From TrEMBL, chain A:
This is L-lactate dehydrogenase complex protein LldE. PANTHER family: LACTATE UTILIZATION PROTEIN A, UNCHARACTERIZED PROTEIN YKGE. It comes from Nocardioides albertanoniae. Residues 11-90, 142-226 form the Cysteine-rich domain. GO terms for molecular function: oxidoreductase activity. GO terms for cellular component: cytosol.
TrEMBL record, chain B:
This is L-lactate dehydrogenase complex protein LldG. Residues 105-209 form the LUD domain. InterPro entries: FTHF_cligase-like_sf, LUD_dom, NagB/RpiA_transferase-like. The lineage of its organism: Bacteria, Bacillati, Actinomycetota, Actinomycetes, Propionibacteriales. Transmembrane segments: none annotated. It comes from Nocardioides albertanoniae.
TrEMBL record, chain C:
Residues 434-482 are annotated as: Disordered. It holds the Pfam family Fer4_8. Residues 396-478 form the Lactate utilization protein B C-terminal domain. One of its GO terms (molecular function) is metal ion binding. Keywords: 4Fe-4S, Electron transport, Iron, Iron-sulfur, Metal-binding, Repeat, Transport. This is L-lactate dehydrogenase complex protein LldF. The lineage of its organism: Bacteria, Bacillati, Actinomycetota, Actinomycetes, Propionibacteriales. Residues 73-298 form the LUD domain. InterPro entries: 4Fe4S_Fe-S-bd (IPR017896), 4Fe4S_Fe_S_CS (IPR017900), FTHF_cligase-like_sf (IPR024185), Helical_ferredxn (IPR009051), LUD_dom (IPR003741), LutB/LldF (IPR004452), LutB_C (IPR024569), NagB/RpiA_transferase-like (IPR037171). GO terms for biological process: lactate metabolic process. The keyword Methyltransferase does not apply. Residues 315-384 form the 4Fe-4S ferredoxin-type domain.
Length: 269, 231, 482
């Protein structure tokens, strides 16, 4: 066990408010993957929200206490991990600016220090733990959408794809026009709903072109938008967070097959 | 208070307490090494769908006549080297008029072609720069006629844009205009489909003259921007 | 400000009509993808692109932070070279100066080089009011002018039109203002360009006055630069007797050498070419060559307001290449008109509220006309952090509206912030989620929702809330920890 890549590392999980309340399976999957790699995972209960929605909508003053809370809660760990490119993007690229904009230079410095230790899941796995094979099995046809903030704020590049490529049984297919925004954009999805849906419709079209069964991404918010459109179309494509794919093992898959009617003779044979 | 003083006052107020930024930490005029500067120039000019030919000095006069493609009336700048026009004879039946500065825009519109020298050729971008010295003439000459035959010497070539500014400085300081020409007039305004030939000369014919005694022998030798001699 | 776009509705209200215009959607999608691919190819050719971008940003930052010094130097250089320099605080003053300069020449028409600054101040309309015709000579501007339309793109103002529409405009309008097109005009871009050539030729040859903008103005030498493709710029800058150039005060560059940076950044970013077909420079008056009356109008029109914002001023680095428009997923679908300005797209969303202020509905809405995807910031040749500025301006809009009767959004945001400011409140709120989840246990998803939530649910299903949040699970499973 000593040789596990995460051994001795104490990592705080920042679940993000959205995942905590709406998509608990995602932070659970993070715990599963990290513990499998030997990491000691902690979940500081004082955490709430990174404030991204407030910041990006123009409510910097409302975001300020959340920036301070984040620094208070998370500045004492080897590393902090969050299963969300956009929340990590906000912590890393906006927290100090919010503090500075509100005249809190002391907090800006503290936010910068804290943010330096905050990682999106694929960054923690690939850059900190040096792992691209997390021992997952996921025998489905999958396509991956690189969310804008993972790609252009965090520059995670192909780290999520490296992780997916090493998943056993996966049939990973390229998503056409992958780098184009899905149109979620936080409150943009509500304030400019028509434009947001027009963008999402094109993304959904490209997803369907791949004939994938599962659309994977590193942000449940984008997935809720694309998945919501796909579901309204009854497209027969489900959406899943990267963490949940990485947490899947052969055992999950066997259990899954026990539960449902055998539809695929090859698999059940 | 004048508008001028008001505007300067507003700028001063806007910048009060601002961090005054220094000029960039950037090396101007860097040389772009190319294996063969003339080859690159020719390839890149062709990319714009201009006609470009390499000629020896002794073949230039005939090449000029051929490039003019039977044009009946040709205008040339006041100080065009005479030997460049030696190819014209009674048989070529071309009327060659030297600009005396009195030709109006309408007069120029009745010429089929213009022949000029150039000041600098930029290989990477396939650009010819005129600094409108006496062998290139005033701007209207190389603008109104529909065919521009432009003679560029290999010794005038530079690698890329950074090397092109220094040899043009003297002309600018003398108050002369510059015209940078990259292919014929073009537009992409309709469905982003490129159409060559709108207002400027619709046809550009570049004659690149081999005037260097030794050229392109050492592929790894960077071209020396000092070779470029502004007219 | 510009008369062209007065009374525009906010972006959100203008967008649905544009989204429903299937012809325009098709035209824009084709055009923006074509040009963004071209840009990507020629940018990839340069190994030092990132270094060039940084140099471009640094040169502009140096200019902006010494703008008073450089403008005075530019004025001296221009005057020494024989040009007359005018200063204009706003659109009205610039239009008055230009109108009287044209009137002094005794002519009743001007030819125009495509210029964002003159569009910004609504010069054509101002000239028309005094009986002076302003002929746009750039092909796309001509299409827009003949079509009684508005530009929808900085570089390709008629990007929203396709060839068949342009043919119709030429056939019905060209003959009313000059040489008509041939009766058998086809929709082939070559034929359309030829019709424009013939139509404009007579205007170029007879024009006494031209009006231009400038891409750059070199302080050290007093040299103005116009970057173009068609040769209409050369015609205007060369043939008339009088040349009037409207130059935004942010266009100044310190030295001639600085052109090497921008003459690499601009063509590759804007048209996706290694170099644009024509670049003209002129330094005041050249005896025997070109206009012998040269005027330069230095335009503020809100630029000093932008300069006063220490975060926002970087928008004044903009060289109007329009690369950000071409990669913007919002612009690609909505087009330029919904932005209510001659500066559409991401740069318009940050520039207009700074130049015009945030008092109108449209200027308040523009910072929100973005999904913050970041594609614009990545392609900007002078490194303007557009997404960051969008957020900065959203904050300004929100802060300016504080103190009055609170809007529904303000109440919701304040409520949410209160909830998140203490984890115990957040836990209480989660109980509600769990109750909802249990109540809807049998459904996988939720369809249409009432009220403000319909903006989400009109087109998208929503997941049902979980019966147990992560926090509850953690406490139950890992109880003692943390």
């Amino acid at each position: 066990m000593i040789s596990l890549p995460g051994h001795g590392l104490r990592v705080a999980l920042f679940a993000t408010c959205f995942n905590d309340a709406m998509w608990p399976e995602t932070p659970k999957a993070v715990v599963t993957v990290l513990e499998r790699l030997g990491v000691t995972v902690e979940f500081p209960l004082q955490q709430t929200c990174c404030g991204q929605m407030f910041t990006n909508t123009g409510y910097a003053r409302e975001a300020l206490p959340l920036v301070e809370r984040f620094a208070d809660v998370f500045d004492d760990y080897d590393a902090v991990v969050a299963p969300s490119g956009s929340c990590v993007g906000s912590v890393r690229h906006q927290h100090a600016g919010v503090a500075r904009g509100c005249g809190r230079t002391d907090l800006a410095d503290r936010a910068t220090t804290t943010a330096a230790n905050v990682y999106e899941l694929s960054e923690l796995l690939v850059d900190v733990l040096g792992v691209t094979d997390v021992g997952a099995t996921f025998p489905h046809r999958v396509t991956y959408h690189p969310t804008c903030h993972s790609m252009r704020m965090l520059r995670v590049a192909d780290k999520p794809l490296q992780l997916l490529q090493n998943v056993r049984g996966i049939d990973l297919v390229d998503l056409p026009a992958a780098e184009e925004c899905c149109g979620f954009g936080g409150t943009f999805a509500m304030k400019n709903a028509d434009t947001s849906v027009a963008m999402g419709a094109d993304k959904a079209h490209h997803v369907r072109e791949t004939q994938a069964e599962v659309l994977v991404a590193g942000d449940n918010s984008c997935l809720a938008h694309i998945g919501g459109l796909l579901n309204r179309q009854r497209a027969g494509v489900r959406v899943m967070h990267l963490a949940e794919v990485l947490a899947s093992t052969e055992r999950d898959f066997a259990a899954e097959n026990d539960l449902r009617a055998p539809t695929d003779t090859e698999v059940t044979a | 208070m004048s508008t001028r003083d008001e505007m300067l006052g507003r700028i001063g107020a806007a910048l009060a307490g601002a961090d005054r930024r220094p000029p960039p930490d950037y090396t101007y005029g860097a040389v772009t090494p190319l294996p063969d500067i003339a080859d690159t120039f020719v390839e890149r000019v062709e990319d714009y769908r201009a006609v470009v030919e390499r000629v020896d000095p002794e073949g230039l006069a005939d090449a000029v006549v051929a490039a003019l493609d039977g044009a009946a009336r040709v205008v040339v700048p006041p100080a065009m080297p005479a030997e460049w026009l030696d190819g014209f004879t009674e048989l070529t039946r071309t009327q060659v008029v030297t600009d005396d500065g009195a030709l109006s825009a309408d007069d120029l519109d009745r010429f089929d072609a213009v022949v000029t020298a150039a000041a600098v050729g930029i290989a990477v971008t396939g650009t010819v720069v005129l600094d409108h010295g006496p062998d290139q003439g005033r701007r209207a000459l190389s603008l109104v006629p529909d065919l521009h035959v432009c003679i560029v010497l290999e010794s005038q070539l530079v690698g890329d844009v950074p090397e092109s500014v220094a040899p043009l400085r003297a002309a600018v300081e003398a108050g002369r205009p510059l015209t940078w020409i990259s292919g014929p007039s073009a537009t992409s305004d309709i469905e982003l489909e490129r159409v060559e030939g709108v207002h400027g000369p619709r046809n550009l014919h570049v004659l690149l003259v081999r005037d260097l005694l030794v050229h392109d022998t050492a592929p790894d030798t960077a071209p020396d921007s000092a070779r470029a001699t502004p007219a | 400000m510009s008369g062209t776009f007065l009374g525009m509705p906010k972006f959100q209200a203008a967008a649905p009509e544009a989204l429903a215009n299937s012809q325009q959607r098709r035209n824009l999608q084709h055009a923006t993808h074509t040009i963004r691919d071209k840009r990507a190819r020629v940018v990839e050719e340069l190994d030092d692109w990132e270094e060039l971008r940084q140099a471009g940003a640094a040169i502009k930052d140096n200019v902006l932070s010494h703008l008073d010094t450089y403008l005075v130097q530019l004025e001296e250089s221009l005057t020494r070279a024989g040009a007359t320099v005018h200063w204009a605080s706003d659109a009205d003053e610039a239009n008055r100066i230009i109108t009287s300069l044209v009137q002094e020449t005794g002519t009743d028409e001007v030819v125009k080089v495509k210029s964002m600054a003159t569009q910004e101040i609504g010069l054509n309309e101002a000239l028309e009011e005094t009986g002076i015709a302003a002929w746009e000579t750039d092909l796309a501007e001509l299409i827009v002018q003949l079509g009684h339309d508005k530009p929808s793109h900085i570089l390709v103002p008629a990007i929203h039109r396709n060839r068949a529409e342009i043919r119709e405009i030429f056939l019905s309008e060209m003959g009313q203002v000059g040489t008509p097109p041939p009766g058998d005009l086809s929709a082939d871009p070559r034929d359309l360009a030829e019709a424009a050539r013939v139509h404009l030729r007579e205007k170029f040859l007879r024009a006494k006055v031209a009006v231009s903008g400038a891409n750059f103005a070199v302080a050290e030498t007093g040299t103005l630069v116009v970057v173009e493709s068609e040769g209409n710029g050369r015609m205007c800058l060369t043939l008339p007797e009088t040349l009037i150039s409207v130059v935004g005060i942010e266009k100044v560059l310190p030295r001639l050498e600085d052109l090497e940076v921008f003459m690499q950044l601009l063509p590759r970013s804007s048209t996706g070419e290694r170099m644009n077909p024509y670049t003209s420079t002129w330094t005041g008056i050249t005896p025997g060559d070109g206009p012998q009356q040269v005027h330069v109008v230095l335009l503020d029109n809100g630029r000093t307001d932008a300069l006063a914002d220490s975060v926002g001023r970087q928008a004044l680095r903009c060289i109007r290449c329009s690369a950000c428009l071409n990669v913007c997923p919002v612009y690609e679908r909505v087009g330029g008109h919904a932005y209510g300005s001659v500066y559409p797209g991401p740069i318009g969303a940050i520039l207009n509220p700074q130049l015009r202020g945030t008092t109108s509905e449209v200027d308040q809405s523009l910072p929100y006309a973005s999904s913050l995807c970041g594609a614009c910031g990545d392609v900007c040749p002078v490194g303007i952090e557009i997404p960051e500025l969008l957020v900065h301006l959203r904050t300004r809009v929100v802060d300016e509206q504080r103190g009055g009767m609170p809007s529904g959004e303000q109440i919701a945001m304040k409520g949410a912030a209160w909830m998140f400011s203490d984890h115990r409140r957040w836990e209480m709120a989660q109980k509600g989620t769990e109750l909802g989840g249990r109540a809807m246990k049998k459904k996988d998803t939720i369809g249409r929702l009432p009220g403000p939530l319909s903006a989400w649910s009109d087109a998208r299903d929503s997941p049902t809330p979980p019966t147990e949040t992560f926090r509850s699970w953690w406490k139950r499973e890992k109880g003692g920890q943390s």
